[in-house]
Amino acid sequence: MRQGSGIVSTVRATRATDEATLFAQSAACLEALLVEGVTAIEIKSGYGLDLPTERKMLRVARQLGERYPVTACTTFLGAHVLPPEFAGRADDYIDEVCNRMLPALADEGLVDAVDVFCERIGFSLAQSERVFEAAAKRGIGVKMHAEQLLNRGGAALSARYRTLSANHLEYLDEAGVAAMKEADTVAVLLPGAYSYYFIRETQLPPLDLLRR
After folding, report:
1. Strand 141-146 and strand 186-188: pairing?
2. d(Cα 21, Cα 1) in Å, to the nearest integer?
3. Using the 8-state DSSP alphabet, how is residue 123 labeled?
4. Whole-model pTM above 0.90?
């Protein structure tokens, strides 16, 4: 991230890609999933980090659901990481997500759920809660990237807002599991996430605890 790779490099590429090309690239991935028998998918944004590109991604997601025999649910992940133009101004960017991006995209019917990346390279608990509150005002369900690189208490916050799901969870503790169970929040584990392949993460989610 500090060197401009990872999510930041994908943001640059996505911003530079026109909608038709993005649709063609995405359709090829979707067709491969359909061959495997997939009937429903979730498509997250979060690789634009500005209104035009987030809109472009979510429009493509809607088009895929319309043109292919699949149920396609969209998740607005505008609060993924801090875009370069907001460097050092995380609270200002959360203002942009909550007060400009989310209202515009929701009014256009492009948002089924809202997600936030609560992490040291993402956003704090307080900033994540602001995103949850903005979604709640519009009656939109929320999700959270939580406890991926360390335990920040994101799972407990997500449970308090009864999120649809909490994702990653490598550093989830017993208290977080109990809170998620009480809130009926789904634990989504991502064994193919970049952390295992690129930063050689070795921390596993508490699999046995989650099963119990």
Report:
1. unpaired
2. 26
3. B
4. yes
